[in-house]
Amino acid sequence: MPAPINIFYVDDDSDDQMLFSEAFQEIKDASASALTLYKAGNGEEFFNLLSEKNIIPHITFLDINMPVKNGFECLAEIRASQQLKDKPVVMFSTSESRDVISKSYSLGANKYIVKPPDFLDLKIAIENCLQEFESVK
Amino acid sequence: MRVVDIVNKENQSIESCDQEPIHIPGAIQPHGFLITVDSSPQHRVRYCSANCMDILNRKAISILGKPVCDILSADDCTRLEYYLTNELFDTSFACTITGAEFNVTAHKVNDLYTLEFEQYPDGSLTVTDQFNQTKRFVRNIQQAESLQEVCQSIADETRSITGYDRVMIYRFDKDYNGEVFAESKRDDIQSFLGHHYPHTDIPVQARELYLKNLLRIIVDVHYMPVPVLTLDNGAGTQQLDMSHAILRSVSPLHIEYLKNMGVGATLTISLIENKKLWGLIACHHYAPKQVPFYTRLAAQLQGHFLTSQISVRESAAENELAGILDVRLDRLLKSIAKSDNFLAQPDILHRIADIPNANGVAVIRNGIIALSRSTPTLEQIKELLPWLISQSADGSYSTDALSQHFHPALAYGRIASGILYHNLGNTDKDGIIWFRSEMDATINWAGNPTKGDSEDPGARLTPRKSFELWQEKVKNLSIDWKTPERNAAAKLAHLLQGQFYSMYLKEEEKRYIQLTNSLKKANEELANINWIGTHDLKEPLRKIQIFASRILRSGNEASPTILDFVGRMQKSATRMQQLITDLLEYSKLNISSPNEAFKQVNLNDVVQDVARQFETDMEETKASIKVLNLPTVKGIPFQLAQLFVNLIDNSFKFAKKDNIPEIEIKAADVTIENIHYNKVTVSDNGIGFSNAHNEKIFDVFQRLHSDDFQGTGIGLAICKKVMENHLGKIVAIGSTNGATFELYFPVIKKES
Description:
The structure holds two protein chains of two kinds.
Chain A: E1 4-10, H1 14-30, E2 34-40, H2 43-53, E3 59-62, H3 71-80, E4 89-93, H4 98-106, E5 111-114, H5 119-134
Parallel strand pairs in A: 1-2, 1-3, 3-4, 4-5
Helix pairs in contact in A: 1-5
Chain B: E1 2-5, H1 10-13, E2 27-28, E3 32-37, E4 45-49, H2 52-56, H3 74-85, E5 93-97, E6 100-109, E7 112-119, H4 127-143, H5 147-162, E8 166-172, E9 178-185, E10 196-197, H6 204-212, E11 215-218, E12 226-232, H7 252-261, E13 265-273, E14 276-285, H8 293-338, H9 346-354, E15 360-365, E16 368-373, H10 378-391, E17 396-399, H11 402-405, E18 418-423, E19 431-436, H12 439-442, H13 463-473, H14 483-553, H15 560-588, E20 599-602, H16 603-613, H17 615-621, E21 624-627, E22 632-635, H18 637-653, E23 662-672, E24 675-684, H19 715-725, E25 729-735, E26 738-746
Parallel strand pairs in B: 21-23
Antiparallel strand pairs in B: 1-12, 2-12, 3-4, 3-7, 4-12, 5-6, 6-7, 8-9, 8-14, 9-10, 11-13, 13-14, 15-16, 15-19, 17-18, 18-19, 20-22, 23-24, 24-26, 25-26
Helix pairs in contact in B: 4-8, 5-8, 8-9, 8-14, 14-15, 16-18, 18-19
Keywords (chain A): Phosphoprotein
Pfam families (chain A): Response_reg (PF00072)
InterPro entries (chain A): CheY-like_superfamily (IPR011006), Sig_transdc_resp-reg_receiver (IPR001789), TCS_response_regulator (IPR052893)
C-alpha cells in the first residue's frame, strides 16, 4: 500500500470544486498512488480542516478571491507556519494580472496556474502539478 | 448800339430755391447805384443800374461805354484811380455827385470793377472805436464760460453797434439744418431762441455765396428792384456776377419769407470756421434800415471775433464733456469690477447706456442679449446685428441715420436712429450696441414756433412751415455722436472686451475643474470595470467553456447536433473571453501606474522576446520574422512588448491563405517638423487593407475583415494607445500586398 498523498483544494466556488473533484477523480482512477482530496471553502476552513483532521497537506491548491480569508492571506500563513512552510502551494486563480501573479510568487507560491477554460486542460494542469511536486504517475 | 437790361427773368417764376441763380439777378436794391467799369486805362462803363440816369441826370447811352471819369468830378476821378490802382477794396471813399455825398466801395470780378455808390456817408471808423470794440470783446470772451455765452455776448454787442431789433446767432449742424443758438432782441418781440430750420431754408447756392460774400444787407424788403443796364453788343446779353455786390437784389422767395415774418430789413454775416459755413449772424429789423459801411465793418468784425472763438470753445466743450464721461466711465468700471455678472444688474446696464449719452443699450455676450432702457425689440436687434457686423470691418460702426442704410430700421426710427456698435471679441457672439432716439424726440421743444405765434396760415413760406419741414428733414435722424462720446464708448467697449475675456477664462476654469473631476470619476469607474472584467465576466465564461468541454468529452451520451451546438457555444464563449482580456489590456493602458516608469529599452530585445511567443505559429506556417537593427528608445518595456505582440499577431491573423507569412521589422531616423524620430516599420505580405481605412483601423472593435479572420478589433487600438503613451504615433499604410505600420518614437535629447 503506497503512502497516502493528501491534496488540498481551497476554493469558495462550488462549480470549481466540482470540476476539480471530477478531474482529480479521473487522475486518481488512473494512478497507482494513494491520492486523497480535501476541500475547503476558504483559508479559515482550510486551517480548521488541518487541525481537525490533524494531517499535513502534500500539495495545496489555493484560489485567491475568497471570503473570510483569501488566498494571499492563506499563503502567507502557510509560509509563516513551522509545519507547513516547505510544503508546495499552487495558486489557482482566474486572474491573469501580472500584479497578482508576481505577488503570489513573492509570497512564496511554488506555481501559478490560470484556471483553464477546458476540462482536459484542467486535468492536465493538476496532473503536471502532482508529477512535479510528488512524482505521482 | 442799343441799351438793354440784364434782369434775370427766370428769378421771378421759380418755385424752388435750389435752382435760383441768386448771384446774377441783374438788378439791385434802390438804396444806391452801381457802375461796373472795365480794366482799360479809361475804365469804360460796361454796366450801370437804371437809377444812375436820375442821380447823374444822364441818359444811359451817355454813361454806358464812356470812360468813368466822364461822370465824376476831377477830384473824385483822381481818388478812384488811386483806389482802383491800389485795390483798396477793404475801404471806401466818399464822393460828391450832383451835390449829394456818396460812399463808394468797389470789388473786382473777372477784370471788371464794380463800383457801388451808397448815399449816407457816415464819416469813418476811428481807431478808438475799433480799440473799444476789441476791448469789450476780449472782456466778454474772458467772462464767457461756453461757446453759447460767447455767442450771446456777440449778439448783444452786434445789436448795440448796429441797432437792429433782433440779432440772432444761427448755427448749422453737419447737414446745414439750423438752430437759433443765441439771440439779442428788443424786449417786446417774441423770442426765436432754440428754433430749428431745415437746410432747405438756406439752399446750397446761397451757402456758396455766403462763403464768398461775408456780409449781405436788405435795406427794405418792400423795395422795387432796379435793373442793371448794358449795351447790346449783338453777342447776347452778358450777365454780371454780383456775388460780392452789396446792392445785389435778393431772391423773391427770400423776400416773401421775410415779409411773412413781418421783417423789414436784414443784415447777415457769415460765420466761417475751417472753410465751412458754421453759422450766421442774422440781424432783423421790423422797419427799413440802412447801415453805413463802417458800421457794417464793425459788425463784420464781431463775426471775425466769434469765429476766432469757435474752434477753441468747441474743443474746450469737448474736453469738458470728455472729462465728465471719463468720471462716469471710471465709476462704472469700479461697479463692473465688483460684480460677478454685471450683465444681470439693471443699474449697471443703465449706466452703460449713459457712457456715450445714449438712450438705450444692448450688450450681447455669448449670443445672449441684455437690454437696458429705450431699445428696439429683441427680434429687431437680432435682425439688425448681422447687418451691423457686416458693416463693421474694423470692429465698429456708427451712424445718426440708421434707416437710411438699413431699411427695416424705419419701423423703429423714433427709438433707434443713432447707432454706435462695437464688436467685443467674438464677432458673432459678443458685441455692444448703443441706441440714440430720433432728434425730434430729444430737442428743446421751447423752439417750436407753432406755439403762441400767430402767422397767416395761408402764407407759403413761414417759420412754422420751416419748422414742419425741419421736422420732416430730421425724421429718423439722431443727434450726431460727439467725438468724446465716441471715444468713451470705444474705451468702454475695449474694457468690456477684456471683462468678457476674463469672464470666459473663469468659466473655462470652472469647466476645466468639472472636466477634471469627471475624468477622475471616469478613471475610478474604469478601474472598477477592470475588476468586474476579471471576476464577474470572465468567471462565468470560463464555466461555460469548461462545462462545454466536459460535455464534448463525454461525447457518446449526446446527439451529434447537440455536440455541434455545444461546440459553437464554446467557441463563442472563448471569443468573448478573448474580447474581455483584450479590452482589459486596453483599459489598463489608460491608467498610469508608477511601476511603469520609462526606461531605455532596446527594441531588438523586445522583438526577440515577443517572437519567441510566436514560435508555434512560425513552425506551423514556416513564417519568417526578419528584424533589422532596431534602436533603443525611451519607453515602458511591457507596453512596448504589447505593441509588437499585437503587430506581429496581426500579421499572422491576416496572412494570405496560400502565402508563407513574411514579417519585416526595420528602423530609420527621420525628422518631421523639426522633431527627430526613431521610425520603426513593421510590414507583412498579408491580405492588407484599403488605405481608406488607415485611420479607422485603430478604433476599438473596428474590424475590417470578415469572421474568416480572427481578431477582436482591439489589438491595433492598443498599439495606438501605446504609441500615444510614448508621445509618438503610429501610421497604417494598406495595400493588397500587405500591411505596413510605421511607428514614430520621438528622440528625447538627454539633459546635459
